């Protein structure tokens, strides 16, 4: 058997072989690293391309949503604009009906029909997703259209309010004319009543049949006569260029009046205060006036009442210039009408001089005074014809209001006022005194100033 001998390998060959292995290994590792780097770069590039595509897709999606939202806003703007236009057209349609305007009605009807068609088109656009290609411009146009419709609506409302105001003005003028006519008729009736001397007391009335209702009825006539004379005095004051405020303030201090015309109540209060002074005395405090026995006084006063009630004051004074009534007229006129007042009104004192000499002036002013004096004189006679006799009373300034004994001449002002006022009303002054006949109380008339509270309307007998 042939023996295998080891090959003869020299040390140099072994070294060369080792280097070759090492170099081959290094080359293999280097190639592997280069291949790995190439693959990583490719992966990064792929990932970058994918992120860019994602961002582009996201941006495109957001842009589409924004465009769609703007398009919807444009659609809503058009919807609101059309609605406002319909509202304006409806307002115009209502305005054109009164007064009737056929052209205006036709124009408004056409606008309503046109806008309803427009609303139907907008509905179809929404359902079919057919939006305006220029939504920004469409929004501005719709907003402009809506503002124009709103302006038109307000213009129509303004015209309607102006028309209503003119209608109210015409109604006010008509009512003012009716009021003036009623005032003229009332003055005519009062004039005829004063001239005729007729009173609402039966001619065949017996003293035993007297009742408080007769006194109340006659008192109404008396108050009307007083106010007629007060109006004459105020007219004379104005003609003589008097300072009405100063005159009123001299009569009643520190009173706040609701309206300017209420100042005449202060003058009326002064007239009543002077004319009813000493009313509670049987002889009215007239000098040198004798009276019969107390048992006969009732018959005497009732006889005086019946004697004078159907006559005019001027005629009675001419027939009986020395009667008690004539003396009453002289005393009250000289006390009520101050010499300065008479001189200011008439430029002289001839009426006073005539009265002091025993005569009576033949003037409209004195005639009005005499008719008022006649009513007060007769009321006094009637008061002393009762058994027990009627008593007179009035309340002082500052007294708390009581609807049992008082009624306010300005209660309507207080009832319908919105001002905040005190809880406890007080009297500013008494205008017309009150009376008591047995258990019957006839309220006195008082004025409550502007700072007083509301009062209830009295259910008792009214004097006015």
UniProtKB/TrEMBL annotation:
Residues 392-447 form the GIL1/IRKI C-terminal domain. The keyword Coiled coil applies. GO terms for biological process: negative gravitropism; response to red or far red light. Keywords: Coiled coil. It comes from the Eukaryota. InterPro entries: DUF641_pln, GIL1-like, GIL1_IRKI_C. The keyword Aminoacyl-tRNA synthetase does not apply. Residues 165-199 form a coiled coil. Pfam families: DUF641, GIL1_IRKI_C. Residues 69-192 form the DUF641 domain. This is DUF641 domain-containing protein.
């Amino acid at each position: 058997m042939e023996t295998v001998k080891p090959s003869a390998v020299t040390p140099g060959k072994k070294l060369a072989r080792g280097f070759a292995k090492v170099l081959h290994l290094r080359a293999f590792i280097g190639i592997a690293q280069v291949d790995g780097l190439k693959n990583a770069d490719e992966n990064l590039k792929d990932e970058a391309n994918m992120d860019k595509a994602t961002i582009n897709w996201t941006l495109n999606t957001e842009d589409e949503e924004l465009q769609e939202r703007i398009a919807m806003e444009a659609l809503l703007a058009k919807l609101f604009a059309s609605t406002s236009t319909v509202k304006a057209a409806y307002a115009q349609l209502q305005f054109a009906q009164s007064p009737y305007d056929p052209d205006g009605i036709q124009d408004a009807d056409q606008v309503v029909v046109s806008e309803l068609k427009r609303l139907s088109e907008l509905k179809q656009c929404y359902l079919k997703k057919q939006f305006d290609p220029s939504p920004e411009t469409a929004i501005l146009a719709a907003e402009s259209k809506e503002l124009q419709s709103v302006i038109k609506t307000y213009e129509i409302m303004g015209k309607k309010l102006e028309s209503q105001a003119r209608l109210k003005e015409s109604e006010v003028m008509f009512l003012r004319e009716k009021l003036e006519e009623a005032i003229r008729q009332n003055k005519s009736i009062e004039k005829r009543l004063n001239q005729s001397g007729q009173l609402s007391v039966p001619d065949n009335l017996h003293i035993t049949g007297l009742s408080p209702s007769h006194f109340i009825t006659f008192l109404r006539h008396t108050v009307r006569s007083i106010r007629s004379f007060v109006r004459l005095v105020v007219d004379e004051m104005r003609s003589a260029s008097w300072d009405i405020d100063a005159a009123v303030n001299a009569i009643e201090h520190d009173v706040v009046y609701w309206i300017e015309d209420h100042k005449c109540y202060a003058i009326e209060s002064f007239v009543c205060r002077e004319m009813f002074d000493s009313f509670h005395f049987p002889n009215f405090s007239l000098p040198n006036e004798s009276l019969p026995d107390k048992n006969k006084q009732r018959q005497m006063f009732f006889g005086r009442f019946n004697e004078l009630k159907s006559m005019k004051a001027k005629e009675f004074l001419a027939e009986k210039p020395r009667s008690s009534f004539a003396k009453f007229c002289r005393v009250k006129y000289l006390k009520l009408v101050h010499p300065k007042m008479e001189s200011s009104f008439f430029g002289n004192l001839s009426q006073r001089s005539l009265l002091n000499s025993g005569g009576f002036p033949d003037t409209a002013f004195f005639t009005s005074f005499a008719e008022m004096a006649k009513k007060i004189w007769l009321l006094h006679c009637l008061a002393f014809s009762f058994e027990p006799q009627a008593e007179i009373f009035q309340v002082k300034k500052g007294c708390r209001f009581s609807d049992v004994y008082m009624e306010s001449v300005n209660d309507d002002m207080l009832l319908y006022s919105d001002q905040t006022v005190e809880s406890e009303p007080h009297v500013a002054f008494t205008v017309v005194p009150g009376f008591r006949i047995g258990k019957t109380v006839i309220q006195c008339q008082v004025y409550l100033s502007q700072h007083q509270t509301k009062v209830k309307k009295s259910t008792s007998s009214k004097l006015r």
